[in-house]
Design goal:
This protein is α/β, with parallel strands linked by helices. The chain has eleven helices and 15 strands. The strands form three sheets. The chain has a five-stranded antiparallel beta sheet, covered by helices on one side. Strands 8-7-6-9-10 form a five-stranded parallel beta sheet, sandwiched between helices.
Length: 340
Amino acid sequence: MKYYQVIDELDMNRFNVVATVVTGEHSGEKAVFVDHKSYWKSNEKGFFGKISRINTEQTGLMELQGESVFCEVLSADKKLVICGGGHISMPLIRMGRMLGFYVTVVEDRMQFAEHARAEHADEVICDDYVEALEQLESDGNTYFVIVTRGHSHDRECLETIIRKPNAYIGMIGSRSKVKTVMDNLAACGIDKETREAVHTPIGLSIGAETPEEIAVAIMAEIVEEKNKEQRNGGYSRTLLKALLPNEKEEVNEQVLATIISRKGSAPREVGTKMLIGKNGEFKGTIGGGCIEAEVINRARHMLSTKEKEMQICAIDMTNQDAGDEGMVCGGIEEVLLEVV
């Protein structure tokens, strides 16, 4: 089974780590570990052949048996489920997609469901709220936002969602409304700790008034919660789809660029990826600007020559030349380039 197919089929509710040797004679060898135990190796007799466990807890470089190995703690796609298709939901859809969430909208009115589709929500479910939410699959990477048109619908949504796996639940509403809903949950047997984990009133306190400002406050709170997890490695749906083309599609070489180390105020985290084609087209971003331009040029050179071996592109944004080129972040990055 090929590496990216293995990644695609992993259970993202488990603790998954992928490891790549980036130096020495075994450079390029890969392995997958599930719950710290060896699961798959690109070469059974190679570097990872006798390694049965890996104990890293975070994404980054580590030294293993004298070699430099890049380990990624994989995180599943983040999913944003918006209950309600009203005015606040429209900017929430746009911001959620902009931030890389898979956005689902649940709405029981056809007209408002169509509004959500027009805003390019990834999925729109037009059905009774409770029935739709009971059927909706969720996990530890699902963020629920409850912004329906009325108190009774908010309560029904919360009573259903609070029993499902989730990363975040937020509900809009006044303090009096929130108290009534929480009292109802207590009467239904929901324990205090679970009730207190609900973010309500929803969003960071920034004095938001307009639908757009309220959406900013909500997404800021969600990003704050998401980034507490510290899992930056992973392959988005878009990247995996590109790395696993349909059998009928022509397979063209591409370069996968992954940030494997950073120092200072580099713009993106370790584990961030982008995929680059021969003509410079790309999916994803590792920070934009001059950083990205340098990586794209290096990748195109690899694809147009016989230089197919994995290489590390080091980018220094701390010197005068970098400042002259507009690299204002002032950090240092190492980007791993692999022809795939």
